[in-house]
Write a structure and sequence with these properties.
This protein is mostly helical. The protein is built from 17 helices and no strands. It starts with a helix and ends with a helix.
Length: about 375
């Protein structure tokens, strides 16, 4: 199998897993529903490029698609009572901002399910405009629109149209929209930032300070959010002199620390010593073993592709997926719960981290000559 086919396979399998897990709550023959999805999605992946190549006025079609997609997403969110959701990513952000505006230590605020928030400060504060209108989940609507606009500018309108259709036919994306989750929103934002940096040909050698500061800010959304930039600039970083490497790492750490320090010294803060602080919550799915294995594999992939732009998007998706899969496998091994992905201890929504990159890779490859 050519490596280019991996994006198709993983796009289908991740979405099929979502269909299988959540349809199992509704029907007994959930495997049949998953098979039906695989057949329909495979047919769509074959037919859509042919359709998009033949249509005229692709910009109009893109605007119509984006409008329908975003409107449907917004309506779906408002059709569901957020207090009835058994996913509390939205309330982790909402209640954090409640605390900030009330002058109360925000990481001590519990979600509507009694848990604690894992997003880091920059990501929390970016949701302030959505908090003011009462729905932090709407951030996914804005970021989806920005991603489609960015790809239309950087790669082409037909590529953006294909990307939009792939995201629209993804059950995982609709799940994230429905439960007002910000996980895929975070990674789509980083995806569009990486696309813009690649389009502007921003290099680490000439813009080291800017990239380091940006990396620190992205770390302060979610720790995994820096991975796309690490893949993009990893090969160049590994071939820099050690002084520049140390400078880069120091600037990343300083940028990140400046966003964290106010919450460390907040009156009543327990950020560093609380058993449910965001660092613990963001790393509890994995283990030391899975992290070591992942780092070795990630560095090998970065060195293997040698910083080639043609391989960047797919490699980013693979690095993100490997992180989640290795964490799950190690957890299964330690708990002797092989393939028991239907339990709450295995949050398969983390597999959606790679989806925007697989969808973008497919869209770009289908129309790279246009």
């Amino acid at each position: 199998m050519k490596i280019e086919k991996i994006a198709f396979l993983l796009y289908l399998l991740i979405n099929a897993l979502f269909v299988d897990k959540y349809s199992a709550r509704l029907v007994d023959y959930h495997w049949a529903v998953s098979c039906a999805y695989l057949l329909c999605a495979s047919a769509a992946l074959w037919l859509l490029p042919r359709f998009i190549r033949r249509i005229g006025r692709p910009l109009l079609w893109l605007c119509i698609l984006a409008g329908l997609f975003l409107a449907a997403g917004g309506l779906l969110q408002y059709a569901i009572d957020p207090m009835q959701l058994q996913v509390d990513r939205w309330s982790a952000i909402h209640h954090f901002l409640d605390g900030v505006l009330a002058g109360i230590y925000p990481y001590g605020q519990q979600t509507h399910l009694g848990g604690y928030g894992s997003p880091l400060p920059v990501w929390q504060l970016l949701h302030l405009p959505f908090y003011t209108i009462g729905n932090v989940g709407l951030s996914i609507i804005l970021v989806l629109g920005l991603l489609l606009f960015t790809v239309a500018k950087t790669r082409g309108i037909r590529q953006s149209l294909m990307l939009g259709l792939l995201l629209m036919m993804s059950p995982a994306v609709w799940y994230e929209i429905a439960v007002r989750s910000d996980l895929i929103t975070n990674i789509m934002l980083v995806c569009l930032i990486a696309e813009w940096l690649a389009y502007k040909q921003v290099r680490l050698s000439s813009d080291l300070v800017a990239i380091a500061l940006l990396s620190g800010l992205l770390l302060s959304t979610r720790l995994v959010a820096v991975i796309p930039l690490a893949v993009m600039y990893g090969y160049e970083f590994l071939h820099m002199g050690w002084r520049k490497q140390l400078l880069f790492v120091a600037l990343v750490a300083a940028s990140f620390a400046l966003t964290i320090l106010p919450f460390i010294f907040w009156q009543g803060s327990t950020l560093l010593f609380f058993e449910y602080n965001p660092f613990v919550l963001q790393t509890r799915q994995g283990s030391a073993l899975s992290m070591v294995l992942w780092l070795v594999l990630a560095v090998w992939m970065v060195l293997y592709v040698k910083g080639k732009e043609s391989a960047r998007v797919l490699t980013t998706g693979l690095v993100l997926t490997c992180l989640v899969v290795l964490a799950f496998v190690c957890k299964m091994w330690m708990e002797n719960a092989w393939c028991d992905l239907y339990t709450s201890t295995f949050d398969i929504t983390y597999l959606s981290l790679g989806l925007p990159f697989y969808a973008l890779h497919i869209a770009a490859r289908r129309f790279e000559k246009l």
